[in-house]
Specification:
Growth Hormone, Chain: A, 17 helices, mainly alpha, about 500 residues, single chain
Length: about 500
């Protein structure tokens, strides 16, 4: 494939420096609100998909996990390709916005269909899930990768990047959790037909239609809210021609950085642990802790509190300790505590199921712990944004799309691996599909907790060890900006 040679456009140093000014509250909010789309999709895939298809629809959990893993094979190439494509797109709507607008309707429609499976055989249902998972993952890539790549273009300021990413994390988590709260409050309520609300198949169908509409609105609000900044964003680099080999050669060159590799490995382990935990959350709440639908509703509602905590903690911790120091401190605290309630239950140190004190204890621990995790995730993305200029100094190219595509791919891949591992754990524990809590053998419940805890700690240990090798700090970031400014000034 060949494209015509175009004249290189280089922003003067003075133009780039304008991006270091604080952004308006309206721009922060509209940009951040776009994360609602990914938050809903991510929450649905992580928390409800295995539960819905594995226990409500009745498809074997291992098949559900396998379907998601197959989808990842087809998805593996889309992230860097879309990232590279958006980095090099020339249009009157800039580099990122054409992708954001194009994805809005298709991803909303496909997500709605995901929760309306037909009454087919297991084989046909498996294929149905695979096809829709592939489409949704590909389409969310078309939106999320260019949208995320806007962040380092909107501002070069070290602390401002953490602030706007905190907004994005806040909306992403509240969007996903908000839909979950809505589900438990109105759609998955107990009835005569469904004494346990989470088994209400019709509720999931309604959720799919509503959430599809919210996804559409979120994408359009973010795209339209940042549209006026297109003229001040970074222009694409010139290209004589490109093909598949050229794309991946540039991708690997961009990603061949020690600090990026450290962040890459750390993000892989974090996303795998998050995906594993998320896939089993509602199963653990229902079967391991025997919480009622009302208690699960309150549990989900408290995620909104966690998101608010993360929103304030991330900028504060980043300014106090630097991004790497903040991420390490928050990670050690959060991931040490997270599995402890399950450990204590296995050792007989927790109140019995049904004890009035059990839920307050677990809910408090989880709310604080999740707030720390959300803050750490926001800092991760801010650290990645700083690598844009670091890469530009090293390669001469701004590759926001390529860099953020790597993290998007990590999140999707390892959440899929987490779901796959969760399915295998359920299978290994001989966990019956579609069974009521009282129908599940105690041995299966205990085995599930026994499998979960060491897996979590191992993945978190890998995450923190890898993160320790990240080297980019505030001083290096400022030096990179000075180098780029001097180089741009010499070209004016």
């Amino acid at each position: 494939m060949r494209i015509r040679r175009v004249e290189k456009i280089t922003l003067p140093s003075s133009d780039r420096n304008t991006t270091a000014r604080p952004l308006s509250l309206g721009l922060r909010m509209t940009f951040g609100f776009g994360a609602v789309a990914y938050g809903i999709k991510d929450n649905g895939f992580a928390y409800f998909l295995l539960l819905f298809y594995g226990t409500v629809v009745g498809l074997e959990p291992a098949l559900v996990g396998t379907a998601l893993l197959i989808a990842l094979v087809f998805d593996a190439l889309s992230d860097p390709v879309v990232g590279y494509w958006s980095d090099n797109t020339r249009s009157r709507w800039g580099r990122r916005h054409p992708f954001m607008y194009a994805a809005a309707v298709p991803v909303a429609f496909c997500y709605s269909l995901l929760w309306q499976p037909p009454d087919w055989s297991d084989e046909a249902l498996f294929l149905y899930l695979v096809v829709l998972a592939v489409l949704i993952r590909a389409l969310i890539t078309v939106y999320e990768t260019p949208s995320s790549a806007l962040m380092p273009e909107l501002t070069t300021d070290y602390d401002e990047r953490t602030t706007i990413q905190a907004w994005r994390s806040f909306f992403g988590w509240t969007g996903g959790a908000g839909m979950a709260v809505f589900m438990y409050a109105f759609l998955l309520v107990p009835s005569d037909r469904y004494p346990i609300g989470t088994f209400n198949r019709d509720g999931y169908e309604t959720y799919g239609m509503i959430s599809g509409g919210v996804i559409l609105v979120a994408i359009l609000v973010s795209a339209l809210g940042t549209h006026h900044r297109i003229g001040s964003l970074t222009a694409p680099p010139p290209r004589d021609h490109f093909g598949v080999k050229a794309v991946f050669r540039e991708v690997f060159e961009t990603l061949r950085d020690k600090s990026f590799f450290a962040l890459f490995i750390s993000s892989i382990a974090s996303a795998a642990a998050t995906g594993l935990t998320a896939a089993l959350t509602f199963i653990m709440l229902t079967y391991f802790w025997a919480f009622s639908s009302l208690e699960i509703f309150y549990w989900t509602l408290l995620v909104l509190v966690s998101a608010s905590m993360g929103f304030f903690i991330a900028p504060w911790a980043s300014k106090r300790w630097g991004k790497k120091g903040a991420a390490l401190r928050l990670g050690v605290l959060a991931f040490t505590v997270q599995p402890l309630p399950v450990v204590f239950r296995l050792m007989g140190w927790m109140p019995d199921n049904g004890d009035p004190i059990l839920f307050p204890i677990l809910a408090t621990v989880n709310t604080i712990d999740l707030g720390l995790i959300i803050a750490m995730q926001a800092i991760f993305f801010s650290m990645l944004a700083d690598l844009v200029e670091h890469s530009e100094v090293r390669t001469g190219r701004r590759s926001e799309g390529v860099l953020f595509s790597a993290l998007t791919f990590i999140r999707k891949t390892n959440q899929g691996i987490g779901a796959f591992a969760a399915g295998l754990m359920l299978q290994a524990a001989a966990f019956p599909g579609g069974a009521l809590p009282e129908e599940v053998p105690t041995e299966s419940v205990i085995q599930l907790g026994t499998f979960l805890v060491p897996s979590q700690w191992l993945l978190w240990a890998i995450m923190l060890t890898a993160l320790a090798f990240y080297r980019l700090d505030r001083q290096q970031h400022d030096a990179n900006l000075e180098t780029i400014g001097a180089r741009d000034g010499s070209r004016v």
